[in-house]
Structure formats: C-alpha cells, structure tokens
Amino acid sequence: MTDKKKHTFPGDDDFLLNEDFIRWRLFRTEESNDYWNNFLSQYPEMEKGLKKSIAQFDTININRFVLSGKEKEEIYHTVLYEVKRYRKRRLSVWIGSAVAIFFAVILSIVFFLHEKRDAKQQASWEKALVVGRTLPEEEIHLISSGEKTTVLPQSHIGLSKDGKAVITDSTNSKKTVSLSKKELNTLVVPYGKRSNVTLSDGTEVWLNSGTRFVFPSEFPKTKREVHVDGEIFIDVAHDPESPFIVHAQDIHISVHGTSFNIKAYQDDTKRTVVLVEGKVEIETDFHQTIELSPNEKIDVAGRDISRETVDVSEFISWKNGILVLKKTPLSDILKQIGRYYNVQFEKTSNVELGGLTYSGKLFLSESLDSVMTSVSRFSSTVYQRENNIIRIRKK
Fold first, then answer.
1. Would the pTM of this model clear 0.85, i.e. be above it?
2. Of the given ranges (110-124, 150-164, 263-277, 342-356), which has the lowest mean pLDDT?
3. Per-residue pLDDT for 193 more than 70?
4. Which of 73, 75, 150, 205 is the most buried (most CB within 10 A)?
5. What is the residue range of 378's domain?
6. CB hemisphere CA count around 195 (13 angstroms)
C-alpha cells in the first residue's frame, strides 16, 4: 500500500482516480480493508467522499462475476492506463469530472458476457464491416401556435397553471414562454438529445432521443391526454377524477397515477410498455385490452401481443445515462447508441450482428468516443472515426 501522505484526489470527495482505492475495490483483501478503515480513523472528514466513491464503484457489480486473479490484474492495469492518460491532459476542471465518467465506462467492460451462437455466424462477422455516420446536429424545440422556441440541452420545462412554460437551463437561467390555450403544443427532441417536462398537473415526463411529445398547456377537469412518438418515462400525478391517457402510435394507455416507460418509435416494428408501479390498461387499435401489473412488460406488434415479467431497470436506466443490457444483440446496442448520440450505423449484407449478445451496463458519458472505445473492448472490435464517419471491424 502507498503511504497515506501520497494520496492524490481530483477532489475531496472523489477517490475513483486513486490506485490504492481501485485495487482495494477489485481485490478486497483483509490488509486493504484494514488500511482503509485506518484511513477513515485518521481522516474522518473524508468519510462522505469515500462512501460516495464506493457506491459509484459498486454500481458496476463487478464482484458478482467470477474472475481469475490474472483477469483482475489486467483490468486493474487497463484502468490505471486510462486514468494516467487523462491526468496528463489536465485541461480544465471539467476534464476532472470527465475522467470519473470515463473511468466508469472503462470499468463497465469488465462484466460484459460475450456469447457466440455458432461458428458460421462468427466467421461471417470476421469479415464484417459496420459503418456509422454522425448526423447533423439539431436543437430541441418547443412549438406552440406555430412559434418555435429553442430549448438548450439539460433544460427542464415546467408548465404553470396560467398557460406558460418556464424553461430552466443547466446554469439555472430561466426563460418564460406563453403557450396556446386552444391548440396542442409539441416538444421535439432530436436524436442525440434528451429533455424533461413537468406538465400542468404535476406529471413528470422524461423524453429520450428522437421523441415528439404533444400535450396541452392545461388539462380539462375530466380527462388528461398526451401523444408520443418515440420513448418516454412518465410519472403520472394521481387524480382519481381525471384519467390520464397516453396515445402512442397504435396503442392507448389509461392510468390514474402511476409510472411507466413507453417505447413507440415509428421505425420500430413493436410498441413496448414497461410498468414500474401502479396499474395501466392498454387498448390497441384492434380493440384488444390488456392490464399490466408492476414489473411487467408488454410488446405489441399489430395484433400480436406478448407479456413477461422483467427487471424494470433494464428499460428505464436510459434516463440516468446508463444502458442495462441482458443478452442484448450488438445490433440493438448500436441502435440505442445511434439514437442517444445521433449516429446512424449501417451493416453490410454479410454482417450477423444479431448473433453476438452482451449483458452488463454501458455508461453513456458525454463523449461518443469514450462509449465507442468501451464497445470496441467488450465486443473485440476495432473502431475508427474520421470526421463524421465511424467504421467498426473485428480485431
């Protein structure tokens, strides 16, 4: 162990860049446990920061997988390499926080389980090339009565009862916009962006990339209705006198107060609803009616309906910047990354992306390059990015 006087942290509450801390959380020896207990005895003011970093590290759940000592050593040295590389840059305070994010991304590759279905599919992937292209940047827009207001990323939109929208950006600057009381309003969130809105009744809505959300400035007393094309997580304010209805393509979800996720993109063949708490009733355009209970997921594709019990974190973690994957095909991972970062991936006719599946967590940092580096590592691929073109091939 290194002497405590040699500890260097980017901040009083961030241990994620310390070599001794990383080794402790990876190997958990009795000696290292004693060392950090003694550290807290000498520096009790560091307890809050240490516990915070432990919690961040443990979200990766690395120790629930059986890894050999050699594998852990490789992981340890890989992480240290990335930490030291970023330390050299020291460009600004912002870089300090970016290091922690990228550190989490690198660690996330530890527990991805690579599953190959058969040798034939693997052989075709050996020759495969996936090409991605970053698309033009677009802005988030709030549209009311034909007037378009640009909304900065990471802003919150709050609707007041007098028909106005208060837009608060990441610097806590506020802008007030008057909304139409006669026409519906539209919030357009392009690929590569996300947004959050609080409706006039207190309902909270998180909008994922590539989503169009239509809503009134005020709800009538008897019924609350909104429309969505894309993906949202919604926490509906309870009102037994006024049911809340979400229209999503060819399905219609009725609730009084509950939280659930809806994925209903036009270019997807199915609509997916995942219930976190409460109860919802879903009606299709074919007059089919289904009731969901918490931790249930339903997929609707035309007249075909399938239901199953799921871990809801897999479907709602996107709003916290994390993809939880469970035997997810690489093709689906790239599709989700594409929406999140405004990238379009195209495969050649020989690519069998569906034959490679992964489980684990992928942390979605500010940097697309950091995420693509992580994808390359757990999928044993190489990626190259030139201007707005991304190429992926097997190592």
1. no
2. 110-124
3. yes
4. 205
5. 115-135+319-394
6. 28
